[in-house]
Amino acid sequence: MELNLIGRAPTVFDGPDLPADEAALAEVMSRVGGADLAAAPVVLPDFHHKSTMELPSSVAVATAGTIRPTLTSASVNCGMALLTLDCERPGPSGVAEFYRRVRERYPYPARNLRELSAREVRRAAVHGAHFAAERFEVDAAELTRVEESGRLDLDRYGGADRLARELPGLAYQLARLRFGTVGPSNHFVELQVVEEVLDERVAELLGVRQGQLTLQYHAGGGVLTGEIGALFGRRKHYPRQLRMAMAVQKPLFHLATARSYRQLRERLSLYFSGGCPPVDRDSDEGQRLLLANAAAMNYGFAFRMATYAALRRIAATVFGGSGGRLVVDSPHNSIYEEEVQGAPAIVHRHNACRAFPAWRCPPGTVFATTGQAVLLPGTHRTSSYLAVAGPDAADSLHSACHGAGTLVSSFAERGLSGPHPAGHETLRFSYDGAAPARVRHLDDNGVNAALDVLVDHGLVRPVARLRPLAVLN
């Protein structure tokens, strides 16, 4: 469908039972109507608008020469990961013990324990998942399953020395807290079983087989990502604790490091005016913003690698086996420099994951053969899917929606989805330690509708369908 609004009409991937919301489309165009677009904005399935976000979810926008932080989350590198487990399917007592230990390791409300030293936070911001793999004893070979191998190079934007000179020490101190936590809401830790393999060859290459136990989790990028996001302008999501930290950090980061009166005035206009304006990519401020963004992405990669290490250890202790292997770790809030239609661009993804074809993945990796792995979760009441980038992923700025939870709810509300005929159930655990609830499954109509749109347009190729057994959220 097309919408005739100011600016370039978006490319919308929807379907007859999941039409894109007109009000949310108008909001997208109000945000990008005057932008230096490198291509048409992309709207993916599960398109909806959260009140705390500037831009609706499931959107990708490429700009030619400006960085626009409001085109993604204020905290970059929220993401999802999937690992396979090499153990038998556990009974109820084993599942309960697993989640008890997860809650013990990562309680909610989170304890304000300092998980890292300030020096380790700096290393995480510079070295990303490579730091976490060393710190938490993860085989470095598994980093090939992490987007960008879990590390963005800071040198192209001024390097680690510039970051150390400019980013206030308080930012590192706060980022020592709550490292690797998951938490409730739409974040989760879900045990699943591979119920159906849809592409035997690719599944084998990714290490996935029918009947296998898997663990999927959705976690944020950690404290530092939120701090850095707030440094570059006022955002809708601006909790009291963050406001207090910014009262100290923003003047130190922007004003105390200004080298001239002109630069001081520019930073006051950009970062203290109450909004979050675009920044020219080739300016000194653009380089500084990209440096901070890369550091935040790196910290987020390290954060989720720490989560992976902890969950893997708990699984090995409770279920036996080695604890499993990582299939993919994929951010769905990001700002990257990428090539779009043969030219350099800034690609902003908001609750949309990257889907690179095999030829754009690092040589020698599994993804260079299969294409980048893509996760399409449903909910704890439906199947989820593992897929890989499809042949026409460039049409969506190499992006796919990061889930189908809103569609699952919408289908149920509209009578398009009902109880699963097989009577499947999920054991749903909570952070309060209460006995788990038994939740009946819905059919897969909602998540299948999202997958069908992605597959019909060549954006992804499905590999396996996963059914939830138990979840903590």
Please give the structural blueprint.
Layout: E1 11-12, H1 22-32, E2 42-48, E3 57-63, E4 66-67, E5 79-85, H2 92-105, H3 118-127, H4 129-135, H5 159-166, H6 169-174, E6 188-197, H7 200-206, E7 213-219, H8 223-231, H9 240-255, H10 261-271, E8 279-280, H11 284-319, E9 325-331, E10 333-340, E11 343-350, E12 352-354, H12 367-370, E13 373-376, E14 384-389, E15 399-401, H13 405-413, E16 425-429, E17 437-440, H14 445-456, E18 460-472
Parallel strand pairs: 1-2, 16-18
Antiparallel strand pairs: 2-3, 3-11, 4-8, 5-7, 5-9, 6-7, 6-18, 10-11, 12-15, 13-14, 14-18, 16-17
Helix pairs in contact: 2-11, 3-4, 3-11, 4-11, 8-9, 8-11, 13-14
Keywords:
473 residues; alpha+beta; tRNA-splicing ligase RtcB; 9-stranded mixed sheet; 5-stranded mixed sheet; 14 helices; 34% helix; 22% strand; disordered N terminus
Q: Classify the helix fraction into a percent range.
A: 25-40%
Strand count, sense and barrel status of the largest sheet are: 9 strands, mixed
CATH H-level homologous superfamily name: tRNA-splicing ligase RtcB
Strand content: 15-25%
Number of helical runs?
A: 14
If you average the pLDDT, what whole number results? 95
Second CATH tier, the architecture: Alpha-Beta Complex
Category by helix and strand content: alpha+beta
Describe this structure in words.
α8 packs antiparallel against α11. The chain has 14 helices and 18 strands. With 473 residues, the protein is an alpha+beta fold. The protein has a single domain (11-472), classed as tRNA-splicing ligase RtcB (Alpha-Beta Complex). The two termini are 36 Å apart. Residues 1-6 have low confidence and may be disordered. It is globular. Strands 5, 6, 7, 9, 13, 14, 16, 17 and 18 form a nine-stranded mixed beta sheet that branches. Strands 1-2-3-11-10 form a five-stranded mixed beta sheet. 53% of the residues are buried. Helix content is 34%, strand content 22%.
